Amino acid sequence: MHLTASKRAAITLALGATCVLAAQGLALPSAQAAPTTTATSAASPVTAAETAVARGLAASLADPGWRGRVRSAALGSGQVDLARLTSGGAAPAALAGAVTAADLKIAAAKGLGAQTGSLLRVRLGADSMKAALTPDTAPLVAVAADDDNGAAVTAYDSAGRAHTLSARQTPQQPVYVVDVDVAKATATGLAQVDKAFSQAGLSAPATSTTATTGGYWTTKINSVYLNDDEEPWILGDAEIFSLVSGFGFDGKVRVDTVDMPYLDNDHTTYYPNQILANWSSYKYNLADVVMMEDDGDTNYATLAKALADALLTITDQGAYVPLVDAILAAIPSSWYTNDADYVDSWYTLAQTSSGQLNGARGNGRMTVEPYFVQQF
Description:
Elements: H1 7-14, E1 32-34, H2 45-60, H3 64-76, E2 80-81, H4 82-85, H5 93-109, E3 120-124, E4 140-143, E5 152-156, E6 162-166, E7 175-180, H6 182-200, H7 209-213, E8 215-226, E9 240-247, E10 253-260, E11 269-270, E12 274-278, E13 286-294, H8 300-311, H9 324-330, E14 340-350, E15 355-358, E16 364-374
Parallel strand pairs: 4-7
Antiparallel strand pairs: 1-6, 2-3, 3-7, 4-5, 5-6, 8-11, 8-12, 8-16, 9-10, 9-13, 13-14, 15-16
Helix pairs in contact: 2-5, 6-8
């Protein structure tokens, strides 16, 4: 799932109202050959690295033997680790080197360490392309679009030519899509965000009441649903995470990250039974939730710093203060394109909250209930 709303418009309205309307992009009606000098100078570092690998992979598909190896991998697994696929000497040396270099560049651009390992993957653009993926066919290779409202996708053939495809209309010819393993990047990135929050004092330890009460109260998500239309074929599953914020017992803002890797598709109800908030960590019985999506370009180090710098200026005044607006305002406006996209927010989640909770933006809803975690 990819959330195609205009995020810049969304943040402007979100700071002044409790509901934001989303705008959808328009699609190009057909695919045509394009000049080979496709501009990438304005692309993000992640997209630039992906594009270099996509062009190299497209060129490598001129070799029938290697093309068959890629085809088998793509048909056998929905998402193929490019580093693993190109290792062992089967792939052209230039392509293997390009994948290694791109993995390092992407990790750096996302604020992740080199120890993160491989991040690039390749997949077939849509299941409907499988029948056309014959041994004699050299598929085009594209990069997952880096513009939420983009109507066009650039794909490369084995001769190095660029082709413009519609992002809304699935092409008939097979297309391999190069993108980032966002699930892996998000899990690694959120761990670094948690570490940065701890170092900044935004995640003070919970109270010791568990020892006397035999456990602690939480809010559990029973079901969650996101509403968003016109998903482009070029983009894969979303990677959703939430920031739960409130005031800790030390009087500082506390932020907890919650990874929600199961939220792949819109118009689908998921039943995760996932803990959203641990109330033993908060001074008040109220907290806020901001749900976001990582489409591949999120720099988690920058995200943590931006939030820490903004939230450390907010102090406990003896009463709960909503924090959604402060979190949204802290995130650079450029991130409301295809980086950490704003999905929805929930103000004043209470320890006693139960039943369906609609997001302020009207894009999501959750059903929750208080849940006591028993200590053994």
